[in-house]
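tl;dr need the bound structure. longer version: we got a ligand (zinc ion) that a collaborator sent over and nobodys looked at where it sits. i said id run it. heres the input, straight from their email, havent touched it
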Amino acid sequence: MKKMRFCSVCKRYTLEKFHCNRISISAHPMPFKSLDPYGDYRRAVQGVDVITKDQYAV
Ligand SMILES: [Zn+2]
């Protein structure tokens, strides 16, 4: 079964790996991993103050 993909050029969903001569991106979210070694860095990039605001920080 083919997975839905998204063409970032024409902003449309497609089943093709290439669309508008560009590779399309997966329309499905990344699989959830509780062990996210880069989670703090990712949240820091998003502007979240990981030191004081992250109640789930270990
Ligand atoms: Zn396209």
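gonna send this back to them w/ a short note. The helical segments are 39-45.
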